[in-house]
TrEMBL record:
Biological source species: Mucilaginibacter auburnensis
Highest taxon of the lineage: Bacteria
GO cellular component: plasma membrane
Molecular function per GO: transmembrane transporter activity
Transmembrane segments: 20-45, 52-73, 85-103, 149-168, 174-192, 219-239, 259-278, 285-302, 308-335, 347-369, 375-395
Localisation per UniProt entry: Cell membrane
Membrane topology field: Multi-pass membrane protein
Protein name, UniProt field: Putative MFS family arabinose efflux permease
Keywords assigned: Cell membrane, Membrane, Transmembrane, Transmembrane helix, Transport
Domain Major facilitator superfamily (MFS) profile: 19-400
Length: 405
């Protein structure tokens, strides 16, 4: 039995390029320092004595900066290549995180947060383009799953460490976050020397002006809209679900933390194996539809199951399976629509859809709860997910060609 399991893991992780592993190492280092953002609103209220509205505005500035950073990051990726932009974003982001800790007035912190987010998020399209560049047709979905694994492990480590540091001194968050950004940039320079990387991508950059714009691809724009809807529902898992479990189901913080950790554990343990087993067997939109519908069932069960740890564990498992099934194949979809010369634009639009979802999700959740409580929220998330799944099904029927090989 143990031999069979070991063989499954070996098969799931084998065949990936060395540079894909390097990019994932860089991503893990970068995300391991993700400490400022999870605690930024608390920092604004408790340390700087801002109002709740001001703290919300600061977070909104971060979201707006993320969207604009993704947009221009995609443009620059197609112009100068993914390597220089990744290094520049990591190094500048590190310095800006350190600087942000010195900004203590509302206007300066709002402006600083926007600039930081703009620079920091320009990294995403470049990184996504790099993963596509170093992936083959046989392993592109697993390459993105490996990167997602690095993101989730890094985020879990950073959030946990950030909580400990915040209890000591909030300013430590800015320094550690900045240092890990810079360390990630230095590791990228060491593991993937510029001369070797730029030699391989110069041809694509020179041809970039001939590429068709992603903003004229109507099928892809429809996909982005549906992905934004899915993202708005998915982010409620991290934003409103913990509040619901605490206030309505009266679960303790330790139980809620364990349930949220289960999400990361599941991704770490089984996503690569599931993707390895599914990759190339069917059209990727089939798995996306299945994932979105699984998430819809999870949200609706909040209104149907009796309150308790067991019910919460079942729902968290379903929503995590939704993420595992949908997100890797969403990455495969945008790669299938682009060429090496316009990957930056396609990656940027995909990143922007998630940034937009992250900005709008708290507003959506709070409005629905205000007018109809959590009961209305869970039903609406189920309906929105069902609508998104139907939209993906129409895309699947329209395209009728394999997208996951």
């Amino acid at each position: 039995m143990l031999t069979t399991i070991a063989q499954l893991y070996k098969q799931a992780y084998s065949g990936l390029s060395r540079n894909s592993w390097y990019l994932s190492v860089v991503m893990f280092i970068n995300r391991s320092g993700t400490m400022v953002v999870p605690f930024l609103s608390i920092y604004c209220v408790q340390e700087l004595h801002f109002s709740i509205v001001q703290a919300g505005t600061i977070m909104a500035m971060f979201g707006i900066g993320s969207i604009m950073g993704s947009f221009f990051g995609g443009k620059l990726t197609d112009k100068i290549g993914f390597y220089d932009l990744q290094v520049g974003a990591l190094l500048s982001g590190g310095l800006l995180f350190m600087l942000l800790g010195f900004l203590r007035t509302y206007p300066t912190l709002a402006i600083g947060t926007f600039i930081l987010s703009f620079c920091n998020e320009s990294f995403r399209p470049a990184n996504s383009t790099a993963i596509a560049h170093y992936s083959s047709e046989d392993n592109k979905i697993r390459s993105y799953s490996l990167n997602r694994l690095a993101v989730n492990l890094g985020w879990a480590f950073g959030a946990a460490t950030g909580g400990l540091l915040a209890a000591v001194n909030y300013h430590l968050l800015f320094w550690v976050d900045g240092c890990t950004n810079i360390l990630a940039g230095v590791m990228l320079l060491i593991l993937m020397p510029r001369s070797k990387v730029m030699f391989g991508i110069k041809k694509h950059v020179d041809e970039a002006n001939e590429a068709i714009s992603a903003y004229k691809d109507k099928v892809y724009l429809a996909f982005i809209f549906l992905s934004t809807l899915f993202g708005m529902c998915f982010f409620q898992f991290f934003i409103m679900q913990p509040v619901f479990l605490k206030l309505n189901w009266h679960l303790g913080e330790r139980i809620i933390g364990a349930l949220m950790a289960w999400n990361g554990v599941m991704i770490a343990l089984i996503e690569m194996i599931i993707v390895h087993r599914l990759e190339g067997r069917r059209n990727g939109l089939v798995y996306i539809i299945t994932g979105v519908l699984t998430g819809a069932v999870g949200y609706i069960l909040f209104n149907l199951l009796p309150a308790g740890i067991a019910a919460a564990a079942v729902i968290v498992t379903l929503i995590t399976l939704s993420e595992i099934l949908a997100m890797p194949f969403m990455n495969a979809f945008w790669i299938s629509r682009c060429s090496p010369t316009n990957r930056g634009e396609y990656a940027a639009l995909y990143s922007m859809s998630w940034s937009a979802a992250q900005v709008t999700a708290p507003f959506l959740g709070s409005v629905l709860i205000q007018y109809g409580g959590f009961y209305l929220l869970w039903w609406m998330l189920g309906l929105i997910s069902l609508f998104a799944a139907t939209g993906y099904w129409f895309l699947y029927r329209y395209i009728k060609t394999p997208l996951t090989s």
